[in-house]
Amino acid sequence: MTSLSSAPGHARAAQLEVRAALTAAIDTVRRNIERFGDRYPDDTTRDGFYPLRPAAGGVPEGGNRGWTTSFVPGMQWIAWEATGDDVFRDAALRHAANFEERMREGVDLDTHDLGFLYSLACITAWRLTGDEEARAAAIAAADHLMTRVLEPAGIIQAWGDLSDPEERGRTIIDSLMNMPLLTWATEQTGDKRYAEAVLRHTLQLRDNMIRPDDTTYHTFYWDPTTGEPLRGATAQGAHDDSCWARGQAWGIYGFALNYRATGDERFLDASRRCAAYFLAHLPADGVAFWDLVYTDGSDAPRDSSAAAIAVSGLRELALAETDPAAAERAVEAADRILASLIAGYTPAEGESDALLLHGVYSLPAREGVDEGNLWGDFYYLEALMRTADPEWRLYW
């Protein structure tokens, strides 16, 4: 494929397509503010449209629970930065206040996904507006996340109450994206414990969750008493030894981000390995099947959210590369995937209130299959923004 950077005409046309797609996506974010107000949609669409998040655990319908709610203000912050329209800023600040309340009241905090939640909702509010209450909530979230560090393995437990024997000692590849909260906490407080936890956890994932063939496990267990690595498994992939596409994309992005935070070359190598396998196992249009065991000719569902995550991951990897040719290849791959998402995976007007179609939450659980989802929407918007404006500062 001709490199966009080496073909000025193609580059200009591609930039116009990206900017048009960014405008269309922001229009959807605006409509969703009008539709949902300060309430939260569910994780995934149903027949193309988001229902309200169901009531559960004492949290009312549309309330702030689960791991995906921060993608809503995350999209609003991007829209504000892209447009300057205070409708987006004001909505995002109201969500930041709601996340402060969630932390104060201890609502649904038994998860490593505090990194997703508080990086987007509160750190971003503080960075962009100076909201000190949001900053305090994010530091509290980092402290709460630190309670999930399990010694002597030094890993951060993914899910559930720490006393739950079924979850004790387990982490997941997604956890790489939660580490920037702790990196930021060290920057803010000077306390190196947070940064040390990032280094230890990410090393454990690099050493145990990437297989020799450069595929990744979705989940991995350590002995919670001895710290010994035990076994890999999956919760959302095709089988324990397959390569769940979204997990591989998390690997590209998460290892690259944690290389940026630590300077540890092992993480840069890990990101490269995850990227090489991911790109080598894509179908012709560049948008991954939900698990990378599937190839062209399969009728398995695609996961557009994995593709969107990979676009940002490849761009992050490109920034880290010292070899200009390697950086160019990563950007070219990212541009090709993004162009395919724009052309074939976005809704026509009125078809959906998602930004991106044809995602998969969990096929084994038959949840959110061939639907839009909040993380796919966010990472698609993030990919558009960082492609349209390479100087834009990420929220991670």
- Quick one: biggest sheet? 3 strands, antiparallel
**Strand arrangement, major sheet:** 3-4-5
Number of strands: 7
Order of helices and strands: HHHHHEEEHHEEHHHHEEH
Structural category: mainly alpha
Oligomer: single chain
Question: Residue ranges: pLDDT <50 for 5 or more in a row?
Answer: 1-6
The value of Rg in angstroms is 20 Å
Average pLDDT number: 96
Strand content: 5-15%
The CATH class name of the domain at 4-37 and 150-388 reads Mainly Alpha
Molecular shape: globular
**CATH T-level fold name of the domain at 4-37 and 150-388:** Glycosyltransferase
Description:
This protein is mainly α and 396 residues long. It is 53% helix and 6% strand. It has twelve helices and seven strands. A three-stranded antiparallel β-sheet has the order 3-4-5, with no helix packed on it. Strands 1-2 form a two-stranded antiparallel ribbon. Strands 6-7 form a two-stranded antiparallel ribbon. α3 packs across α4. The radius of gyration is 20 Å and the shape is globular.
